[in-house]
Input
Amino acid sequence: TLRQFSEILQRSVHYVYEAVAKPVEGTMLTVIRELAEYLSQSWHKFPDFNKLLLSSYAILKKSLAETRSKLPVLEKNKVVDAGAKGFVLFFEGIMHVIRTANIKELIKSRSVVSEIPAMSEAVHEKMEFRYCTEGIIKDCVLGRELLVNSLERFGDSVVIAGSDKIRRFHVHTNNPSGMFSELRKSGTLTFQKADDMIRHYQTVHDRKWDIALVTDSACDLSPEIFDRYQINMAPLHINFGDNQYLDKVTIQPEEFYSLLRESKVYPKSAQVNENTFINMFSHLATYYNSVIAVHLSDKLSGTFNSSRKAAERISKEFGKPISVINSRNLSGAMGLIVLRIAQAIEAGMSHENIVSMAEEWTGKARIFVSVRTLKYMVRGGRVSHVKGLIAKILNINPIVSLDETGKAIVFDKAFNHLDNMKKVMQHIGNLCKDKKIWNYTVLHAGNPEAARWYGLQMKTLTNKEPVAVVNISPVIGANAGTGAASVALLFE
Output
């Protein structure tokens, strides 16, 4: 009945306000509350739902317009609240159906894809927090108030819904990995999402160039380089049992290697799915003239193929070139290819020329990983238990690299880690006799001492500092294992 409907809506307002840690008037909350209050006071005046809902539109419009005067930032910029506007648009859709009352046409419209024009009317204050995160905790041991307190230590805009059995939350934070690491103690993390709001803002309002650059989290470069060249990164997924993480976003290398040592469950990685790239390419193609994406070897992950399929679809839809490059590499070697492309974009090189040169650069990138133990490769199924046992007995430390097709190979081996690293440097020295190194990176899996040793050796050889010294990406380190160290280089 109309009365029951109005009572249900009125009661729901309590839950809406309760879900938000710090409710603010002049937002979607106000519009929802004022709609519920109107329906509660007016339901008895109308004979049916249609007339009641249609009559509420005037209240919604008035409430939306008044958000401008309730929040200083909205009044200053002469705009209404975006969330409140969204709720009113949602309600307008309902009223449109009521007025037209043509169910057959509504069913037909489900198969119609409509393009939504890009909206430029947006107000952006200084961002205090970079990531807009969401997550689901199953069997949460924390009550709502304790969970709110825990989340507020990491950021703001905290929203929590659901029950103790399954809680969904939303937080703006600068430290998603620290936050999710803390939440792991509270229950099972079955879903995670983190959007880089700064990169989104730059795409819309502060693009440095006309070509967008995309890669995945197997690309190892420093955060400073990612920011300087506005590189967009799609994170691969890492699962520790039922707990799910986003590589380099909701779990950082340091936390990953700590978990790797402690956990009895071996982590599993999963490729970036096609829908993620469809969303990313659609967003970028709205503002950039073209997109170039570089991914880890297709012999190691299906990420390249997911990206390629999405690129074909979005390129056709937007009429803009989206080129997807198989780096035939990973980690620091892929990072150097990405850096070379980023610098070519910065220099003003055309999309076509960059894609053409990228094929040459991928052939000149190499990486040599000194593996301290085969334990993790055995646990991950990349090496048989028998071979792992023999290597352990003989204390064999392999050197892992990639062949020209991007397939992982055991390049060499030694009987201790230092000899292993010395062999890597000997081989690099031999390569440099007839080739010149454009640049290099030093990488490690929780082994800064080995990284320093490699750094000193490479500086002596090249007379230049590395592009970066970074922890190897978790999706790579899951197989290389803790203690691994490597050198990646790109020849001129």
